């Protein structure tokens, strides 16, 4: 019996649980960390762009964004099209980013301990292919 999906799900849950244990004392949760990483990489973006990238349903993303705005981590601004609201990181989030990144990197390094670079490259290619296959459906 092949249980690839089950093992991926179990690993993801373990990863998220451990990440939350590490960064929640710093005032952040894994769902928010994904938003922050996206905004650091892409800059000012719409909620739709963030939702699409993170593969999160709109109501879930709305709750995350609302919470982050209340915590002073993001701001929303209107674009040329008044219906489009752009989200960007605040100075507070930018100031805390390195602290969050350090904790996230530390946890990730513990997770990949003992796995050689070639296997990690293969792992990333496999995950990318699986995601692409699922996106085609």
Question: What this model shows, in words?
Answer:
It is built from six helices and three strands, in the order ααβααββαα. The two termini are 23 Å apart. With 137 residues, it is mainly α. The chain is globular, with a radius of gyration of 17 Å. It has one domain (4-135): Winged helix-like DNA-binding domain superfamily/Winged helix DNA-binding domain (Arc Repressor Mutant, subunit A), CATH 1.10.10.10. A hairpin with a 6-residue loop joins strand 2 (74-78) and strand 3 (85-89).
Strand order of the largest sheet: 1-3-2
Work out the number of β strands.
3
CATH topology grouping: Arc Repressor Mutant, subunit A
Q: How many domains, as an integer?
A: 1
CATH class: Mainly Alpha
For the report, how would you describe the main beta sheet?
Answer: 3 strands, antiparallel
What number is the mean pLDDT? 94
- The global form is globular
Q: Compute the gyration radius: what is it? A: 17 Å
The percentage helix is: 55-70%
Q: Tell me the series of helices and strands, N- to C-terminal.
A: HHEHHEEHH
- Identify the CATH homologous superfamily: Winged helix-like DNA-binding domain superfamily/Winged helix DNA-binding domain
Secondary structure class reads mainly alpha
Alpha-carbon distance between the two ends: 23 Å
Give start-end ranges of low-pLDDT stretches: none
Q: Supply the CATH architecture.
A: Orthogonal Bundle
Total helices: the number is 6
């Amino acid at each position: 019996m092949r249980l690839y999906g089950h093992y991926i799900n179990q690993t993801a849950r373990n990863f998220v649980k451990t990440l939350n244990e590490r960064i929640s004392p710093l005032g952040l949760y894994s769902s928010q960390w994904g938003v922050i990483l996206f905004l650091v990489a892409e800059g000012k973006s719409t909620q739709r762009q963030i939702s699409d990238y993170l593969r999160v349903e709109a109501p879930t993303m709305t709750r995350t964004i609302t919470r982050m705005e209340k915590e002073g981590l993001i701001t929303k601004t209107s674009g040329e099209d008044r219906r489009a609201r752009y989200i960007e990181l605040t100075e507070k989030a930018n100031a805390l980013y390195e602290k969050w990144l350090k904790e996230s990197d530390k946890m990730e390094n513990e997770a990949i301990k003992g796995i050689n670079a070639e296997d990690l490259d293969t792992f990333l290619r496999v995950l990318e292919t699986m995601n692409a296959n699922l996106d085609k459906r």
